[in-house]
Design goal:
Helix content: 10-25%
Number of helices: 6
Radius of gyration: 20 Å
CATH topology of the largest domain: Tumour Suppressor Smad4
Oligomer: single chain
Number of strands: 16
Structural class: alpha+beta
GO molecular function, one term: ATP binding
Organism: Ruminiclostridium hungatei (Clostridium hungatei)
Function: Involved in the regulation of the intracellular balance of NAD and NADP, and is a key enzyme in the biosynthesis of NADP. Catalyzes specifically the phosphorylation on 2'-hydroxyl of the adenosine moiety of NAD to yield NADP.
CATH class of the largest domain: Mainly Beta
Strand order of the largest sheet: 6-5-16-13-8-9
Shape: elongated
Cofactor: a divalent metal cation
Protein name: NAD kinase
Order of helices and strands: EHEHEHEHEEEEEEHEEEEEEH
Largest sheet: 6 strands, antiparallel
CATH architecture of the largest domain: Sandwich
Distance between the termini: 38 Å
Length: 286
């Protein structure tokens, strides 16, 4: 790792104080900081182009911001097979697990090869409208199907490998990777999974059923979710909290493991379960 790309959400790093700290640290340990020709001026607007610009010039991308910044960076970086490390300038930061005061130590670990690169599974989604393929997308965290600004219950028929599983009335369903198990899925009551696992988590959102629970499928399964034909209003498919697609009654989405993976650099001293406790359980005790 010699050339280190830097992506910053300047709404999180006012005045680029931590970005400059990172640049100085990279240079101190003999590396080269690679920055886009223009810096993101409004939060994450234009970030996709900036990531694509530096991917061909660096061995690693370090992004400064919250998990949203990390996800948006990763959705482009995976196309170039570039690993990513996140510095947390947000709140919980499950993906951006390097804290502000750990920047220098993290950079030192990188140049001492004291790290591992985890390949995390992604999900591939195909959205069908009127029986025809309407859109394709990939997700690092999750795909959700939810009500599009209405108060009526959304009825979603769920299939596993084309076998009917159940009808879920409620606010929707979130389908998550293990990486995404600590995001929307967890908030909806889903289980937490070790992020390097290979499985698919399906969690109903505010289900109107007493017995409704999350379920976990193996990575080989294909999940199909159909909006009830009697549902005349619009529903919303949201991918990684970044992209939205409108669907309605009779439309459906197919979700399965993607052939692609995203590479995440982890400092070896950072254990997932320790990070989990520090960010959730210890915070509850404060």
């Amino acid at each position: 790792m010699k050339n280190i790309g830097i992506i910053t959400n300047n709404e999180k790093d006012i005045g680029f104080a931590y970005t400059n700290m990172l640049i100085e640290s990279i240079r101190k340990f003999g590396g080269q900081a690679v920055l886009p020709t223009r810096t993101v001026t409004r939060g994450m607007d234009g970030l996709d182009d900036e990531v694509a610009e530096i991917c061909g010039k660096c061995d690693l991308i370090i992004c400064l911001g919250g998990d949203g910044t990390f996800i948006k960076t990763a959705r482009t970086a995976y196309l170039f097979d570039i690993p990513i490390l996140g510095i947390n300038l947000g709140s919980l930061g499950f993906l951006t697990d390097i804290e502000k005061g750990e920047i220098d130590k993290a950079v030192e670990c990188i140049f001492q090869n004291n790290f591992v690169i985890e390949e995390r599974m992604m999900l591939s989604s195909k959205i069908y409208k009127d029986g025809k393929l309407f859109a394709r997308d990939v997700s690092i965290n999750d795909v959700s199907i939810s009500r599009a600004g209405i108060l009526r219950i959304l009825h979603l028929s769920t299939y596993i490998d084309d076998n009917f599983f159940d009808m879920f009335p409620g606010d929707g369903i979130v389908v998550a990777t293990p990486t995404g198990s600590t995001a929307y899925s967890m908030s909806a009551g889903g289980p937490i999974a070790e992020p390097t696992a290979k499985l698919i988590i399906v969690t109903p959102i505010c289900p109107h059923l007493l017995y409704s629970r999350s379920f976990v499928a193996s990575e080989e399964r294909k999940i199909k979710i159909c909006v009830s034909d009697g549902f005349e209003h619009k529903a919303l498919v949201t991918v990684d909290g970044q992209k939205n697609y409108e669907i309605t009654g009779g439309d459906y989405i197919e979700i399965e493991k993607s052939d692609s993976t995203v590479k995440i650099l982890k400092i070896q001293s950072k254990n997932f379960f320790t990070v989990l406790r520090n960010k959730i359980y210890d915070r509850k005790e404060d």
